[in-house]
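Friendly challenge for the regulars: who can give me the C-alpha cells for this chain first? No prize, just bragging rights.
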Amino acid sequence: MRSLPLPLALAARLTPVAVLACAGWAMSSGPAAPQDSAASKAGQKTQTQSASAPSSTAVSQTYSSTPAPCAGVTANTVKSLVPGAPTAGKEIPSTDTKLRRTCSWNALKGYDYRWLDVSFEITESNQAAQKEYQQRVSEKSGGGDVPGVGDAGYSVVNLTTEDKQQTREGVVLIRVANALVIVTYNGSNFETKQAPDTQLINTGAIKAARDAVAALEGGQKN
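First reply, four minutes later:
Bragging rights claimed.
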C-alpha cells in the first residue's frame, strides 16, 4: 500500500480523527439502527391506533327525530285552549319532517277566536340547540323564565292592534337536550275588539308546552 505524500507529523495528527469518524459511523449504522426502525414502526402503529380510535368529542344526539306534532298536545288541552277546534289538529307541511314538524289548531266560537301552534325542532347537538335557544330568546324581550320544563324555558306575551282589533299572543320556547319546542297561542274577541288577558294567554301557552315536552320525552331516544 502506497503511503500518502504527507509529512509524518501531519499524518499522525489526522489518524485519531479518522478513527473517531469511523467509530461514529459504525455506531450510527450498527445495532442502534434497528432500534430506530422499531421505534419508527411503534410510532406509526400509535398514529394508526389514534386515527382509528373514536373521537372523544364526537357529537351525540339525544333526539334524532320529532314526535308526531298533532299528538303532542292532549285532547283535553286542545278543548280548553281552542274551544270548537278538532282535537286531531292539522299538520303544517315541512321541507324536512325529521328535523321540524308543526301542528295547528284554530277555531271561532261565538266571537272568540283562538289559535294554537306547536312545533318540534331537532338540532345537531345540545350546544347547537342552546345557541339557537339563546338567540331566539334575545330576539323576544319582556318575557320570563318557565321553570320546571325541559332544560330551559322562556315565555313572552305581546299585544298587537290592527284596525282597532286587539290580538294577544303568547310564545313559549323550551329546550330539551338537542330539541326545541315552540308554542304560539293567541286570541281575539271580534265583538268587543278586545284581546284575552295576558295571564290567560300565558298560562295556556305554557300548558300546551308542558304537553309537548312530555310527548317529546316520552318518545324514542337515540
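Residues 1-57 have pLDDT under 50 and may be disordered. The chain has two domains: 8-52, 69-217. Your move, everyone else.
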